[in-house]
């Protein structure tokens, strides 16, 4: 896969990305998969829900997951877990571990994007502190040096500087308001200069949008607490029953699929994680609505929620 101007290309043809954010937790074993079959099943479930890729969030995933993604045909964005705070020691450790991750996973064809930073975590003062900006730009250029074949997102979500893809995180829960934000005649002026998803500027001064692909890399996050045992659950918006959940998911995914500005999207999230009840699956991988319904909506097909 490669980038041609503002689009992703696969075998010479535009290839819209339909990703799901996946934190890779399991109920009993946490970040360690209970079995190889469990890793394979996660790949199969992502594909069954209509996604062609996953964004592994704040986790360098087990290489067996990447093996099954290679074998079964699922794209993977690999993201470095963030440091808690900025320090020379944190950057030194992050660089060392990031190099090890790239060297380990370089040969997996499923890996198509490297993401060293997310939402300015570990570098919280990008708008005001040069050292924080230097860290992002250094990791971007180091990654491109180690692997010149794959695109790199320097800092995903907002406050972008050196990057091959402009990722936007926007959890607007009203589908029509989300559509109105991004179906604009002059995106450079209205989006990059005026509107601030998450309350943050999208690009830092000196790094204007240069025509890179724009991807809605986090959105949705609809909480539907179907079978959680957690007393307090959380999401960016909430549905009270299966029909309401399916309808809101379908409408949000229509916006993501139909907005020409976007070269792809990443829905939050794959499965419930602790108090986060905004997964398409429960924590033990039970679909909250039928997989066929999720898949149709993911691909942008309007669904009849009365039949759920």
Brief overview, please?
With 308 residues, the chain is α/β, with parallel strands linked by helices. 32% of the residues lie in helices and 17% in strands.
Characterization of the model:
By secondary structure, this protein is an alpha/beta fold. It contains eight helices and twelve strands. It has helices at residues 36-48, 63-72, 88-105, 130-146, 175-182, 187-194, 242-258, 291-298; strands spanning 2-4, 7-10, 13-14, 17-22, 53-56, 75-79, 111-115, 166-169, 214-220, 222-223, 237-238, 262-268. The protein has a seven-stranded parallel β-sheet, with helices on one face. Helix 1 (36-48) crosses helix 2, helix 3 runs parallel beside helix 4 and helix 7 runs parallel beside helix 8. The two termini are 37 Å apart.
Write the topology of this structure.
Blueprint: E1 2-4, E2 7-10, E3 13-14, E4 17-22, H1 36-48, E5 53-56, H2 63-72, E6 75-79, H3 88-105, E7 111-115, H4 130-146, E8 166-169, H5 175-182, H6 187-194, E9 214-220, E10 222-223, E11 237-238, H7 242-258, E12 262-268, H8 291-298
Parallel strand pairs: 4-5, 4-12, 5-6, 6-7, 8-9, 9-12, 10-11
Antiparallel strand pairs: 1-2, 2-3
Helix pairs in contact: 1-2, 3-4, 5-7, 7-8
Notable features of this structure?
alpha/beta; three-stranded antiparallel beta sheet; globular; 308 residues; seven-stranded parallel beta sheet
